[in-house]
């Protein structure tokens, strides 16, 4: 898809003086010249980049209004702004902590209720036969709970599906995912997670906390809710992408902290102190409330939703001989993780093609719920692994066919929330599990978890991954002791922990954050080094085969995600090849009709327009003067900020920054703004609204250079200029995200209107 | 110091065609017009910015040579480069770990020897009287050891003084501190630290590990040592500031890790994975070697040089009632920290004014060593705090005037390396210390540590700060129990930990890194939240009074340090006011004599020159075409890359990127390059050596905007252009660092040739 390069300045610029006829011709020209711009019917595959995602703008539009406001604010007022920031972060932390408590307590009670009902039923039917009724009861219970959870997601807010981590990752990367930080999404997410976990799916409730924290942050920092139509008239200063992003990253941190008790889990861009503070408050709130709820009020020593229990390091150190074993476990985790991701990839492709109707999605979720229950039941039924009930800490011991005083050990793995199962695998004394039980459980749970991820329910993949890993890790530890005839004493709990780390690392491919999370959740730093080692190995091995689960899903959504650096071999490309051209420019004093026509022209994907010098008859070069955003133009048109052509000297109506902030972030579409024929002939002066100092690059700049500028500053539009400061093109996120490092070198994705 | 703004293009540009006479006139003009540029005799104060520091360039000069090389490298070759990076990081980790081991083992042995000698002496003289001989022995021993440590620092490598953390902070910020990453510095640093600690000063050996790790990283990544005149011809690809910085940050991380066993201690800019990996390897190396050395080979569960011992969290949780107490301790820590910093500030000012001769510095260091020994001795002598020797873990129990089977408890605090004293204060059972002892010790040690920091010896302030804090924390805990008549049971060890955190936080003002470091060093995450709380409180309270110790010293050195963001109230300034103007520009094809003259002209502080279109007679605007660095010009002149004016069509000698890399980073001065009178008349074509796409800003851009661009991309020179892309000025680090937020708002520092 290389473009022929028009080299005369006139063809670079489309100075906005187009009549309707011109405009149509222009579209035509655009379509023939730039065929890759709007191919509508490309079958879905991962080598696409969707045009439907817009960018967030992390670069303040420093127009006159903005500068005037900033200059008016003195030192003391800035301190007030700073204090407001801290207050907002505290509120984010408190609310995130409370939401986490709510989820935890509701899940605990509902799941407890369910298990008691099913257990009583099984106990009843074990004696008199007819356990198929129990199975039916269990499967029906699960399926109906999951149905509700899936219904609300599929029909009310599809973006609440999954863990939300890929979405928040994209948001913080600068991609505007529609609805992702709305209040409605939060409500659906919270209810959805509760229902998925209670419905017995192979899911966790931790991942979604990150999304929840982010929504809370976005809501509070704006001081209003558009969904509820309430504007509290506070925090208006923060109504722009730049500020909102910082708070969202603090919210995400608070979410991680509430889920895992790990305050340094997310190191997203943005101010570290705020993230840190919000995390602190969030953990603290969660702990205080839960400690009161659990009766041992004010003992704050167990942070986080998930707590893997303490490994007593005095008893369980590790030696250098174990290092190669851990590395081997990392390799296994990497391979199993890659397998998980590959299976999930095919499944997701299948879902994108065939299960895109909401009804079907609900049916699939119910099916998975029923199958999960059935598999669990059959495995419990077939298992003959009985363990003495004495001294064990099983919550719902199921006797089934075991002798009195014993319980079915397979049941503890299935008949429990996954969180509890993980803790059991870590801490149950050696000998609690039969190797056969563990093997079967690993196998089954692996496929169930893989099938579950990507369903239209709110759910996380952290805990299932840990559970799979803990199961095979423990199995591995037992086998090791057995095979070496006890010469290596492998504590099963320790190996379960390493297995869990390896499996999770192999699936999500994080290293630093996961190390901290695992360290925090085990309340112990001794295992820091081996956990790191395992995670890095798993990542390296996994990356060799296939991408991480979150990145894979981001790619499957064709999101224009920008990594930290440009692909290494992209120095051969320059801004000239990468940019879109021609670019629609506006004149500094422009005819209203032209502005309306340009905004209505859907062929232009850009949401920002370079502003050039207004006088086109002089021979003077039409150098770049500024950049104005579509949203700003919309506000100008809405407030009719223009004067008649005859009275250009008359001062046009003044707008305040507040007018722009009130419209943020849901600017009305151009169709909703009525401009009369007379008004079309008026002129609009963009000088004080445009950003007079947009960042620019020369056409000779290499792609990595452009990329670095774009990414480091969080830009949305980057104007490409020639030696005389004339506009020759525009680089946006899609132009950069298109180039990716494939197996054979640099590859270029196609753009599509998916 | 506002400048009158010349507005005609001709006065903006100094197209480089100056004869010697012109040049002198120009200097004259410069001096009258821009009086703040070279004021030589301003008395030292903190409102100065030194002109002696140059910037590092984190922006690759993407000239033709560079791009050609990058384009030649294919995908597979990039993988080799990536593997080399990992190998280098592993080597950095291993060497840093080994250096840490070396320091640890040598200090342990030498200090042990010293304490045994003194103890035997005291034991001898206690019986027969004449303890003043013991005092004399102790003081002389200390003073002579410190003398050697101070001599090598003062006379061989003054930059090795102190902990090196401020220097590395500046380096990573982009300031070139002379000699900071040289091999000689490393050798002096390591020996200096050993001698300071053995000399009984109130110092730690942990801080300097960060500096050591950085030097190791800088050395290895360049594959050569200029000091040793050895070039291993490897890693030549990494011979530029950009790459070197990433490795130095990995080295700093490895240093932190070796010192504290905390792999996530430093979160400096640069690639996190490499930092993480180097840390991992470093901890691992240290542990392996130390575990073998200490006899319990292969037990790797105690990471880091300093290990505060494990707090058993089962026994020692914390409750919500303690939170306000912890916050109060944070306040105390903040105030004491601010006091420490203020005292140290006055002391440092005094030192800068009166103790700048190396001999005096050595004498001061010896004095401090002798005083430290004397104070210790007198306090031990006066103390009547005897404790039973049974069951205690004191290394060198000093009986002195205590009964048989008892030891002097004051002696344990002084008669020990500070690291061990900290651990004792954390873990000795309740009742081991008399409140009076603790109070006196805190008071004395506070002033000693304050006096010691800033001496011309290599030493860190971490451990002394922790020790002061641990002492008053323990005292606080004991008093609390006593005052509330036991209704609050304050475990002295826990309060010692919190006090240590508060004091350290109050002095250095870090939060995130310190929390992780303290958590790692105590092997426990339970106290994560309260430690964070204490650190944040201490930081907020401390910041109210005076800056953190490291920032203060950076400011006292007048280093042009750039913070993350521009001062909040700086929107009123634009690039036009901030930039230096006029700027010396070069033409694309320039006369050699002109280049030599410009480079020899010391009035220009810039090390980069905008390159403009070469033909000055046409009416065409002289738009910016590129940017060339002084160092690049030097290499061009050295290799005589020029052609006679008559034969402009002849291709000039080609240079390779290797020629530039070989000269990096110590480019010869212009005076060492001889250019004959004939050669002066030759022409030099800069096209392929200049960076053709330098970043630019328009003159209207606000200071925060310029700042953001400069800081985010790690620039050294930022060209300011007008609407026609003509050069109007240049912004460098000093122009931005000059503006600072003082107590009353924005203030401007003066520039001085200190």
Describe the structure.
Two copies of one chain form a homodimer. Chain A is of the alpha/beta class. In chain A, the strands form eight sheets. In chain A, strands 1-9-11-12 form a four-stranded mixed β-sheet. Chain A has a three-stranded mixed β-sheet with strand order 14-15-16. In chain A, strands 2-19 form a two-stranded parallel sheet. In chain A, α6 (165-173) packs across α20, α7 runs antiparallel to α8 (207-222) and α12 packs antiparallel against α15. The longest helix of chain A is centred in the N-terminal third of the chain and has 54 residues, at 75-128. The radius of gyration of chain A is 29 Å and the shape is elongated. Residues 1-43 of chain A have low confidence and may be disordered. Chains A and B meet through α3, α10, α18, α19 and β14 of A and α3, α10, α18, α19 and β14 of B.
Brief summary:
2 copies of one chain form a homodimer. Chain A is of the alpha/beta class and 754 residues long. The first copy, chain A, contains 27 helices and 19 strands.
